[in-house]
Amino acid sequence: MPNRRFADGEVVMGRWPGSVLYYEVQVTNYDDVTHLYTVKYKDGTELALKESDIKSQSSFKHRKSQSSSSSPSRRSTSRSRSRSPGRPAKGRRRSSSQSREHKEDKKKIIQETNLALLVLFCLLKPSENNTRRYNGEPDSTERNDTSSKILEQKLKPDLEIERVLDQYSLRPREEEKKKEEIYSEKKVFEMIKTTEKVSSKTKELEFGGRFGTFVLIFFLPATVFYLLLMCEQDDPSLMNFPPPMPALESLWEARVFGVFLLWFFLQALFYLLPIGKVVEGLPLSNGTKLQYRINGFYAFVLTAAIIGILLYFQFELHYLYEHFLQFAVSAAVFSMGLSIYLYIRSLKAPEEDLAPGGNSGYLVYDFFTGHELNPRIGSFDLKYFCELRPGLIGWVVINLVMLLAEMKIHNQSMPSLSMILVNSFQLLYVVDALWNEEAVLTTMDITHDGFGFMLAFGDLVWVPFVYSLQAFYLVGHPTAISWPAAAAIIILNGIGYYIFRSANSQKNSFRRNPADPKLAYLKFIPTATGKGLLVTGWWGFVRHPNYLGDIIMALAWSLPCGFNHVLPYFYVIYFICLLVHREARDEHHCKKKYGLAWERYCQRVPYRIFPYIY
């Protein structure tokens, strides 16, 4: 195999993908497998380039010196003549040979510039319609085709394009002075979408890499079962470790698994109903947009109606409480089977359908993080369905079952105030998520993360069985709270919810339509990608205000359980750790995506989640 030509840290000239322009870049890395150089432009943008797209600075200086030394006397004479208004016409005092050379040079420059314009026009043409739609302008495909033909006929070069590209760098001299301005233009960055594909292998591994993800595949289910077993103990103190283990044969029951499958496919049926609007998600790497039906709230209403009918006919929902651990095992087994299916089908998926963060080439890591970005069976999007339906709605149903179980076990005519608060707070959270279902399309779960064990287990097991931990705890450990304490907790949850909802609404509205007059009061930092970074409103207060609201609400959900044990506050501790990890991942992703603009944003907004603390 040939040795690498350029060393790390070396400053060279790199060709901008899809164009014929070269810019000064610094080599930061070299991949021995793909033989691609990772280079960094002056604005902070990092791209992977082939060795053929990189040239040494000396070769460009050599060309420049040749061009500038070809006829200095002629240029100096021309400049001196232009300063004398009393001179006769220039053509009369110039020899025929000089005139011919001048015309040839002028023709040569015009051909270079025209050809560069033609190449840039062809590169920008595929995304022109999308840009017009973004700006609210009508499509103009027919006019584009006509103007393209006219331009091609007018600017048709005498030489073949490949030979001209090899002969000239096509770097207009005026561009040398304004090359920094190019980086801030949105259309230049759109050229990346129409250029040759480079390797999309995941280089930076999260969650401890291959070893960490292997451990998490077993650690996460073990954590769920440990929490549920501890809640069943009379004294759920952390000092009583390990809790008594039930017999293995008691953990599995075919009837319970059948009920879980019935629940899953009932929600799938609601998802397929032709009710609710159909919207487009954010553009994928190939420029296409997937369509999603927004009917999660309708599914919730239909589920509530079915539960109401079951209660009216006195159907025994206490069965879920009595077999709660078996339901958790059934959900874990199903999520594992679903993850295996997702990984096997992802092996046949095209490269452009793979997840940016789950394409490392390592089986365990890709299995855990998700190899395919948006696995679909026809129009049925598996990841999007699991994100909000079976687990999130199931969380509310489990809370209701725990409320009824508390009343039955303790012979109460009404549920306790603590149980009412927990159910009400978490019901508000779920209804809000389903009512604002479209907002989930802009989250990293949908746009960046693949669908593998991490999301499958999280959506189907962790969310319904861990997020309902407070309600499950209160059944076996009733806690009485006063009305003033309840009022204070309600205010705390209201503050957290207000921050969470208003921050997310600002972000989602701005992402959908930055030109909305309703958002005129928001200020932002423009980036080279064409997107803006908000520096006013909640996003000018801290970098992740939605995470701040989440943590405040999580605390309010746990306070009704009292302070006798730490177990109900596991959710708060977990949530803080999860959001700090997500925040660190978001920081890394945004710094790589937005470059210098993100550094300016961080200087403007120094606090990440907690103001004046972190």
Tags for this entry?
cholesterol biosynthesis, SH3 type barrels, 614 residues, globular, two-stranded antiparallel sheet, lipid metabolism, 25 helices, alpha+beta, 5-stranded antiparallel sheet
Explain how this protein is built:
With 614 residues, this protein is of the alpha+beta class. It folds into three domains: 10-57, Roll (SH3 type barrels); 208-479, no CATH class; 481-613, no CATH class. The chain has 25 helices and eleven strands. The strands form four sheets. A five-stranded antiparallel β-sheet has the order 4-3-2-1-5. Strand 8 (376-377) and strand 9 form a beta hairpin. Helix 10 (209-231) crosses helix 15, helix 17 (390-409) packs antiparallel against helix 18 (417-435) and helix 18 runs antiparallel to helix 23 (545-558). It is globular. The protein starts with 10 loop residues before the first strand and ends in a 10-residue tail after the last helix. The relative contact order is 0.07. Mean pLDDT is 78; it is low at 67-98 and 115-199.
Question: pLDDT average, as an integer?
Answer: 78
The beta-strand count equals 11
Integer-rounded radius of gyration: 31 Å
What is the helical fraction, as a range of percent? 55-70%
Main sheet specs: 5 strands, antiparallel
Backbone structural class: alpha+beta
Number of helices: 25
Low-confidence stretches: 67-98, 115-199
**Distance, first to last CA:** 48 Å
- Which strand order spans the largest sheet, edge to edge or round the barrel? 4-3-2-1-5
Strand content: 5-15%
- The outline comes out as globular
Q: Could you say how many structural domains there are in total?
A: 3
